[in-house]
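In this section we walk through a basic example: taking a raw amino acid sequence and producing a predicted 3D structure, encoded as discrete structure tokens. The instruction is simple. Fold the sequence below.
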Amino acid sequence: MNQLGKNIIRRFGGYLPFITCFIVLCFSQTFRIFTFWNLITQFLLFLFIVSIPALITKRMSYVDIAWPWGLVCIGVLSFYLGQGYWLKKIIISSIYILTGLRMGIGALILYKKGHLDKELSRYRFQRIRWKKFGYKSEHASLQYEIMLQCISNITFLAIPAMLQAYNPDKFISIYEILGYILWISFIIIEHFADIQKQKFIKKSYLNNQKKVVCNVGLWKYSRHPNYFAEWMVWNSIIISSISSLSYYFETEHKMIAYSLLFCLLYISRLMYKTLVYYTGAIPSEYYSIKKRAEYIKYQKVTNMFFPGIKKNNNY
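The resulting token sequence is shown next.
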């Protein structure tokens, strides 16, 4: 098989889990209408905010705007289309809206300040991957990656919102309470980690120490505490959705119900891979090592993702 054929198969394989999830949602008696409107909303959002600008500028950093605002859209759709218990509907809608707004407003601020006028490092890193796998068309690669982000909002990442917004059960389970508490905790931790990093960068800049490594606060225990916290935000949402599944085992075909369970749990793996390998830790560290000589020492004593005690107190 020639290189083109291999590339087509590899890229189709990248879409396959999302296509499978989409088929499950379309066959669901409960979620097909929501999925239709979410499909239209996310497609238009990514088309005008990311895909068309990417064709013009050859930059996909606009994903940082569209993806979180896509979560806001899921929250709004959940509120208006959900037919479940009003309290659960309000809570899960608010979770999506607040999660999206936190990142979405931040992305708009970066855009206004001109930070998106050049490709962000995590998206520059994608070019290295494309070259490694022999992808020659930059335009095709950009659109492929953009649509991958779009379809994640259409499928897996919308499932917790649907499960809870359509659940009529008025009983608030221990899983829901635990999930909501964890969500609040980790959204605060993520924000706190970002603030610590920003303060460190500002202080270093004022002291003319631009190449020092941030190893203060939460960054003492993880090289990427913000990414870990974001992963836990999604795990918290998953936990809060578990008890809703019992309703769909009664109302949906068993195959659909089990598929929804699998898709719900798969979100954790999806976000882990994204935050570590795809646009998170590894792309970030590729450039950090080049810019900061001390970063290699930092890597040796501090866990990359999961928080832990320093391996060596001399650093």
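Looking at the output, two observations stand out. Residues 3-301 form one domain. The CA atoms of residues 64 and 223 lie 21 Å apart. In the next section we compare this with other chains.
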